[in-house]
Design goal:
- By secondary structure, the chain is of the alpha/beta class.
- About 25% of the residues lie in helices and about 25% in strands.
- It is built from 13 helices and 26 strands.
- Strands 1, 2, 17, 18, 19, 20, 21, 22, 23, 24, 25 and 26 form a twelve-stranded mixed sheet that branches. An eight-stranded parallel barrel has the order 3-4-7-10-11-12-14-16, surrounded by five helices.
- Strand 22 and strand 23 form a beta hairpin.
- Helix 11 packs parallel to helix 12.
- It is a peripheral membrane protein.
Length: about 550
């Protein structure tokens, strides 16, 4: 009888310890749960058939919108247009320079209404004028060559790689069915390209059109006609850049993914297209009151993988050698939403998008915008970095190009991504906690990485430490790892102030971007991911075959 009672008490104790270790209340706060989790990293195979990004994966956009571009009664663009942006602003210069290089895509809705000043065309070079009766709500605008000169000089000094979006609707007529008919008139674009080459300006890529694929935005161009136009653009690039060792990329269509349209387009441009670009605004309009709910919903975030997987499948099954880019992504269209798409909470969506896009072999991801609207990486008026700027910069500095297959067990509220490290021979893990009431203690397991099987890294290091105590000749490597914990000021996810390891990130009086310094943590300890926080973890001691 005594033995039975003892056994019962023993198993009750084991059960209580299991529950306590996996779900307990923090004694200091009284309302924060602590749960255990494991991130599994496949060390022998990269994600999604050897997924790999460009080294300069991070990209941002600059748009054409004038100050009187307004949405839902709010005019959020200020002087952030390509035509009026203050190129003498020190913060702007330093923000770009910090990436060295930062890809910048110049384009947007009004690019298909822009003409380029030319000595062969004597019509006045006038700015955009708001006119609700006009297509897209504005008159035709013009890029003066003096401004084009200023932009190129600035971008060269700042270390930007420029992708320019060309007007694809020049001379086209929009029919009663909403489609734009006829072939692309390339005369004005060709004039700009020749001027650019003659001035010695370097352009990373020329992109044709903005959001004209599929059903289009405002109007559309059929896939077969678009393919014909791209073939023409490739011929122009080959001709103008004759003798150049490196020629600019040709990109298109810069629109929303439509499987049938993209399939036809890619099949008909097998040798004339280097980049297939598409746009992401999967959160809906900026006026939506449920943006936060969507951002914090892991199932909704996961559903955002459809354009990435669909385009990857088309490219894999085509004869084209083109790669996939996200050419513009602001999350919420019509300029975003103040204190959401320019606040801390948006880093959950943005970094998850970067991680997901990488898994599906996306080479570059362009954020709408660098500055302008309510979704800029920089504040439209002050140029001071918003939280997403620092998220982007940390990604750029820490996440290498090789993408590792990653999964997470323990809670659905953690989003996890892993790349080979850019800073070391190890790995960098990104952990995003969508739960505002739970701290997660995370172990890292490099399953299939070595003979350790699914032992966590922390367990492996403990074994090494025990062995080291028995052998004076054995040295334990990788005693520490570097962690970057991102949180919102005062825990307010609507805040536009981000903290790194508890310290506010802000530019100094000279407009310099602050250093992004990690904390060193024992590699044997679990990674602590606080409520509503983001953690980059660089683990140099983990050498995986996929990162060799």
């Amino acid at each position: 009888m005594g033995s039975s009672v003892f056994n019962l008490l023993f198993w009750c104790l084991i059960f209580w310890l299991f529950c306590y270790s996996n779900h307990k209340v923090d004694s200091q706060t009284g309302n924060v749960d602590v749960v255990q989790g494991t991130v599994f990293v496949n060390g022998t195979a990269a994600a999604s058939s050897s997924a790999k990004t460009d080294d300069d994966f991070i990209c941002a956009t600059l748009d054409w919108w004038p100050p009187d571009k307004c949405d839902y009664g709010t005019c959020s663009w200020g002087s952030a247009s390509l035509l009026n942006l203050d190129l003498n602003n020190t913060i702007l210069f330093n923000a770009i320079k910090a990436f060295s290089p930062l890809k910048i895509r110049l384009g947007g809705t009004l690019q298909d209404k822009v003409i380029y000043e030319s000595k062969y065309d004597h019509q006045p070079c006038s700015p955009f004028v708001k006119n609700p009766s006009e297509f897209l709500g504005f008159s035709q605008g013009c890029l003066p060559m003096s401004r084009w000169d200023e932009l190129n000089v600035f971008f060269k000094k700042a270390g930007a790689a420029v992708v320019f979006g060309l007007n694809a609707l020049n001379s086209r007529k929009i029919g009663s069915d909403g489609s734009a008919g006829g072939a692309w008139n390339s005369t004005n674009a060709e004039s700009l390209m020749r001027y650019t080459v003659n001035k010695g300006y370097t352009i990373h890529g020329w992109e044709l059109g903005n959001e004209l694929s599929g059903g289009g935005v405002g109007t559309r161009v059929a896939a077969d006609q678009y393919a014909s136009d791209i073939i023409s653009l490739q011929h122009i690039v080959d001709n103008i850049y004759t003798g150049f060792k490196v020629k600019p990329l040709v990109l298109a269509p810069g629109g929303f993914f439509d499987e049938n349209w993209f399939s036809e387009f890619i099949d008909k441009t097998p040798a004339s297209l280097q980049v297939v670009s598409h746009h992401i605004y999967n959160l809906g309009p900026g006026v939506d009151d449920h943006l936060i709910d969507k951002i914090l919903n892991p199932s909704y975030l996961t559903s955002g993988s459809q354009p990435f997987s669909g385009l990857q499948r088309i490219l894999q099954n085509s004869a084209s050698s083109a790669v996939s880019w996200v050419g513009e992504a602001g999350g919420a269209y019509n300029s975003g939403r103040n204190l959401v798409t320019n606040a801390f909470v948006f880093s959950f969506w943005y970094l998850d998008q970067l991680g997901m896009a990488s898994v599906y072999n996306t080479k570059t991801y362009c954020r709408q915008t660098l500055i302008g609207g309510n979704y800029g990486l920089l504040n439209t008026n002050t140029y001071v970095p918003n939280p997403d700027y620092y998220s982007a910069l940390l990604w750029h500095r820490l996440m290498g190009s090789n993408v590792l297959s990653t999964s997470f067990s323990g809670t659905t509220k953690i989003r996890a991504y892993t790349h080979c490290s850019k800073r070391s021979q190890g790995i960098t893990v990104l952990l995003i906690n969508l739960d505002g009431n739970t701290t997660v203690k995370v172990q890292v397991s490099t399953e299939n990485a070595a003979s350790h099987g699914a032992l966590t890294i922390q367990q492996q290091l403990i074994q090494k430490t025990k062995f080291a105590r028995m052998s004076r000749d054995y040295k334990v490597d990788g005693k520490t790892r570097e962690e970057y914990h991102l949180t919102a000021k005062d825990g307010d996810i609507h805040s536009q102030t981000m903290l790194l390891n508890g310290k506010i990130l802000t530019v100094n009086s000279s407009g310099e971007i602050p250093p992004l310094e990690p904390i060193n943590v024992s590699a044997q300890d679990p990674i602590t991911v606080g409520p509503f926080s983001i953690v980059f973890v660089d683990i140099p001691s983990v050498g995986l075959p996929a990162c060799a």
